[in-house]
Amino acid sequence: MNKYIKIAVFALLTGSFFSCEDLTSVNTNPNGVQPDVVNPNLIMPTVLTEMAKSYVNLGYQDIAGVVQHTQKDAWSSGHNDYDWGGNQSWSGYYDILRNNDLLYQRAVTMNLEFHQGVALVNKAFMFGLITDLWGDAPYTNALKGELGGVDNILPAYDSQEVIYAGIIADLEKANKLLSKQKSDYSSIVDNVDVIYGGDPTKWRKFANSLALRYFMRISGKKADVAKAGIENIIKNAANYPIITSNSDDATMGFPGTSDGTSWPANAVYDVSGSNYRRLKMASTFVKYLQGVKDPRLGVWAAKVEIPLVVDAALPAGTDKIEGGKRYLSPDKIGKTVVDTDPEYVGLPTSFSALPSAYNLNPTPGQTSFNPHVSFLAPMYKNASGALLRARLISAAEVNFILAEAAQKGWSVGDAKSLYEAGVKTSLAAWGVSGSSSAYLAGSGVAYNGTLKQIIEQKWIASWTAATESWFDYRRTGLPALTAGPAAKRQALPLRFYYMQDEIRINAKNVTAAMDKLEITNFSQADGKNSAWSRPWLLIGTSKPY
Amino acid sequence: MHLHFPQQMLRHLAFSAFLFALSMSTMVAQTRTITGKITASSDGTGIPGVNIQVKGTQKGTSSNASGTYSLDVSGASPVLSFTSIGFDAQEIKVGNRNVVDVVLTSSTQELNEVVVTALGIKREEKSLGYSVGKVSGKDLNRVVTENVLNGLSGKLAGVSINATGATGSSVSMIIRGAKSLSNDNQPLFVIDGVPVINTLNNVGQVGNDNRVDYGNAISDINPDNIESVSVLKGPSAAALYGSRAGNGVVLITTKTGAKSNKMTINVNSNTVFDNPFKYLNMHSKFATGVLPFTPDNNPYPGGTLYIDEGSSGGVGPELDKGYKAVQWNSPLDAKGNQVPTDLKSYPDNVKNFVQTGITTTNGFSISNSTDAATYRISYSNMTNRGLIPGSDLFKNSIDLATSLKLTNKIKLSTNFDFSRNNSNNRPASERGSNPLQWAYAVSPHINIMDLKSYWVPGKEGLQQNSQAIGDYNNPWFLAYEVKNAFERNRFFGNAKLDYQITKELSLMARYSLDTYGETRETKIAPSYTGEKNGAYGLTTLSPSERNIDFLATYAKSLQDFTLSFSLGGNARKSTNVYISESSKGGTGLVIPGLYTLQNIATANIQYSSSHSNKVVYSGYGMANIGYKDMLYLDLTARNDWSSTLPVNNRSYFYPSASLSVLLNEMLQIPNNRIDLLKVRAGVAQAGNDTNPYALFNTLGLAESWGGVTRLAKPGSILLPDLKPEITTSMDLGLDLTMYKNRLRFSGTYYTVENRNQIIPTTLPASTGFTSKNINAGLLESKGIELTLGGTPIDKNGWRLDLTTNFYKNSTTIKELSEGLNFYTLWTDAKGGAWTYVGEKIGDIYDAEIVTVTDKSSKYFGYPILDSDGSWQSVSASKSRTKIGNFNPDFILGMQASLSYKNWSLNMTFDWRNGGNFVSQTYRYGESDLKSQRFLDNLINPGTMTGDALRNYLVANQETMIKINGNNFPIVGGPTKQYGGFPFEYGGKVYPNGVFNPGVIAQYDSKGNITGYEENLGGPDTRIIPFGDNYPWSFTRAATFDASFLKLREVSIGYEVPSNVVKKLGLQAANFSVYSRNIILWTAAKIGIDPETAFQPQAGVQAGTQFKQGIERYNVTPWVIPVGFKLGLTF
């Protein structure tokens, strides 16, 4: 008996440790919010901030290099020479679209029309960017990874034509969703809307202005659709309000509390400041702005620290710095081209594999301390500031689009006044509206009725939002920019390369899309998937070359 | 070999005590006392626990810990018999001697050797149908290692050990190749039945680019406490451990007091000096800069030569040419102008920066055993001064093992271990705050000793001094002012009840716990280039694991059969809490140098916490059936219920079977040559679950946007209907020993199939997601393990043992899921490691070089250059250009052990052949033109120009035009001496031009090539400045052969003879001198240990933070350690 009692006690002691827990509740994650219950106001700021950041990153960095607003003098091959390594990722853009999709789905479920409208504008904006940059892209079947199945895991590519049509349709839908008074919407939280502070009317203007942008984008390919679309908006101004004044500009400021919430390439969180330093004014841009005496140059650029003075009167062998200037006798220069402008010196386009050596810089290399070339204005070192805003679309751009339409003879108003309104609103945006009249009267600025002039002013106005200028160049060949001697190819690129992950993972679909690209003289070793191949938008248009 | 096992010991002791008591009562007059020492013929050391019996009587005793004994005998010619497991029995006539010393030789049949198997069950090795690797504590501790895993290197077939760096870094152990694509493939470690926590996820980062490997927790174990290590390599051996055994199990048995039959005190002390002797192959020819100016040809206004101190380039003005230049520390003249000083080279900067590492370990143990109780208490203390100044590591541990007989049938045993592992400063790895990276970055025109007082005078505590303030870090500053401290307090232990209910039936119940708290504290002083305002952060990790298990065993012998059945259960709960608070990147502290959380401005503080729980319940059973000592069959079965899986898939079952056939017994092979011929086979399954919360995603919290909360949906798709992974293994082996155990062979062939792996696969971003967990695929590993050992010499006190382990493994992805044809392990540089279905894990891919592919062209194979004269690439993924594989072709380990009387010499070699690694250190270093190798590979055109040069290149086109391996032909160089071509810059011409031999193609508008223009030195050849021509677009330029040969261990030991020891009042004393990890040869010859090609990086692969086959500033200098060890037993 005794033995059995012992066994029983032993078993009891052992068993008492095994108090079973419910395994399902053990595995319930206590560390985060479930997506199916989230309030869309917690998602909206994620989408808006990331969208604005990605746009300014393009427009202030590599695309500013393409349109020759800026040039870099270190780590420069992507910026100056279009040496993009055959790999540009759109995954950040689809990340934004994933969150935007959640915003939209939750807004639909909760019947929040303002949030739906905003999400549709975001969707149009992001897909617009994707197709503008790459060409054909997954659209209809995109963003459906969670549904599973091969069609959703490996989405087919839609033609650019389909995507542009979808963008315009979404914007039309947004125009309706956003047509009520603010008080008619529920659940608007002002501060989560980092662009317009929860103003449905301004969002509606954004939607319609974006539609103008995309109608004009396809104007070389589908002139009828573009004309009808733009005229329709202008004709029905009450039902299609658009951005016409600076206060409607779709822009976003930066809180500047960390690198991720600050102006890109600032010198506050980038301790060495090299990201700021290596970005220099481009010679093309500086010379143009100087030519038209543009007051914005002083806002954007810093004066050259030590100007060069070449003087034949100096004794041979002179090379000295005195009074903040470097004096040289001509024999010290030889055949080397130097820029002796006393105020602003830009870096010539893609002029050498060693751009840091320009203008007799004694310290070439990656440190970018060239005292003989203009840096960007010191405000660009800051993490945030009144003028440091991501600019998604502006009154200036809208006015220039309409000026171009008018210049084409479409019935949208008077080309001259639209052009002048574009210039004025841009000057106002940069705080130099006082010079408007003088500037507009000046040589080269006073309206001369050419598309060239409209696009060139649009090019200036697109500072830090250079993507539009690149797309205008593709469409019109204007401004007539040329590649520099060290560029990968002797022409400006037309698009981004399809990314390697797509080629590896979604091979069949991306191959079909690549096959639709048209090779140009500059595609060369890249083959079809070249930055110099034509996407649908350009095939058959003979632009830009 | 001689292993001794506590329980048998205990029986012997108890039995002898009983006999002794009996003999006392019948003692007669002629009684005399015989004493003596029993030593092993192999190494002359004392053998404890030998059973000594007076033949024909019941009298007997056993030897003590040092092998000595004392026994009373009576009668005229007593005969003593000496028996011990693992040794041949001997009978000796005492005659009229009072001292009888005996030398026992190792048993001719080590078949009876007992090994620890799953659940701590001790089994005779011959009865096992699978292979178990074993290392005795003695072999493990001959050479002292800080992390016990390092002591296993080269000693076991099928096991590979890798470490990222010096003392205190994480050590990876992989058994039979990586089987899982998604976890760190580390085996389960079980100490005395307690599973202990060990992962490779030990990289922490507070502050920008301040990545610190805090070392893995298995290093908390004091190697001196280890009695033996058993490695269960395949699931057949490990099936009973369930889910986590898929990667093998390492069973560690610690020492107990059972061997002592009196109070025994063991003291040991050792010190090892790590002397650095080999460094990276960097040149010291040029100052910083990208153009090698000379005083009479330089671009500076005024004619004075300046050094561009902030440049990362390594081809500025030449050194040791008698030039003077204004340098970072040039003195000022009366007018305040900098005075140019001599440009000299300082080639020994890194050598002068590092110091000799010193590790001292002291420990003692006290043990005793009585009939009713045994105990062993030990204490160990280790202090380490690192190779990098300012770095250190400390370990303290106390271990208590007791067992208590409560009744004749019930035994209570406990084992408690407390340890404290801490450091004031662990050096950072990778690029960023790594002091070695910056020591190598100190330009050779600077004497590193001039940087040693590292503050700018007058700005102490605020601004570090360096060659270029703001751009360059001072390595001394990093070593002393970027401090990453940690402290880990750990407890693990168990309490176990054994109840022998009847002779056949026994029951065991055990409670065990492993828990630790680790606090990491980072203090970064202002002016570190990654954190100019300094940084501070605290991170706390608190993992714990609790296990409760029981096992009932019924064992019986029936005529020819031996039977044993066991039934058991286990309940496991793991929890993990993580808390961190730190300053946001770049924001820093309010008051410089005050390291508290309060000193971070409210807007600049960031914090996070997470909590996870996991519970697994298991039930298992086992049957062992033996027939006539010639056939053994083992069957096991286990079922797990895991909280991490969905309800429907939560329960999973897996069985195993193994068979051992002793052919020599069965076929009655005459015993004169063959001692053992065994064939074994096993098949097994093991199921595996996953991490907690892997079914549904939650939204992540992004940094607030000026006070606005931002939630984000993760880009990974989880799988709500996860199934468990199932590993199926097959194990076939042959064991043969011959010539009285003088020749030993063991061979195993295995296959492992891992199905339903839970792996994150990359999705096209356009799906909206970047990865999706799938529960699919089939990975197959195949390998062979061979061990050949012999004892060629064993006479006149000499004994030589040689053992060789050969190991070869390859793992292939057989299937993934639909639409996925490869799996990415990592991408880096311009390529990466990914594996296509049907191919072997470890393949490395690179961008393709654009070359002439038209075989009919005379330029076939020549690089097609762009219009600038640079190489062109087609990106890696498009071209499938495989450049290597990071796994070795085979691993060969060899151990040699030579002993003569009290002396012994032991050596362990490790040869890994084949495989490749990518060195980001060289990629960065060479793109900055700092390596000697890069200069050595330049083609000097000498006086040749034009056609002569062209023809010379064409005649040698295989090496001078075409790109092979990591050599990119470049003609010319930085100076005239290298044959540099004229390059114009800033109105001057410098002789630093180079060109890349190849052709430039012309294309038509369809993209077809219409012709080629030679770029071979003719008039239109594209000349590029030397400083701007590194093949950065190609991973292969920095990919090297990973083969190496290491002398893992060498030691010379001396056991003080017993008569001397006795005079000193000791039981035993020994002394040894040793060294370890001496790199004898590497194929790459670049001063980097290929074994350190593991790159710690946060979040690259789910579950692991090590990228295999690539290194980034894992550049600890090679060392020759010299260690001294002294052991005394009282």
Structural overview:
The complex is a heterodimer of chains A (545) and B (1130). Chain A contains 20 helices and seven strands. With 545 residues, chain A is mostly helical. In chain A, the strands form three sheets. A three-stranded mixed β-sheet of chain A has the order 4-6-5, with no helix packed on it. A two-stranded antiparallel sheet of chain A has the order 1-3. In chain A, strand 5 and strand 6 form a beta hairpin. Chain A is globular and about 115 Å long. The N and C termini of chain A lie far apart (103 Å). The mean pLDDT of chain A is 93. Chain B is mainly beta. Helices cover 8% and strands 47% of the residues of chain B. Chain B has 13 helices and 63 strands. Chain B has a 22-stranded antiparallel beta barrel. In chain B, helix 5 runs antiparallel to helix 6 (475-481). Chain B is globular and about 110 Å long. The chains are: A mainly alpha (545), B mainly beta (1130). At the A-B interface, helix 1, helix 2, helix 3, helix 5 and helix 7 of A face strand 27, strand 29, strand 30, strand 34 and strand 35 of B.
Summarize the structure.
Chain A is mainly α and about 550 residues long. Chain A has 20 helices and 7 strands.
The oligomeric state is heterodimer
> How far is the first residue's CA from the last residue's CA of chain A?
103 Å
Largest sheet of chain B: 22 strands, antiparallel, barrel
Kindly name the structural category of chain A: mainly alpha
Shape of chain A: globular
Q: Main sheet of chain A, how many strands, which sense, barrel?
A: 3 strands, mixed
Quick one: overall form of chain B?
globular
Pick out the low-confidence regions of chain A. Answer: none
What's the pLDDT, averaged over the residues of chain B?
88
Mean pLDDT of chain A: 93
Largest interchain contact = A-B, 111 and 120 residues
Category by helix and strand content of chain B: mainly beta
Strand order of the largest sheet of chain A: 4-6-5
Number of distinct beta strands of chain B: 63
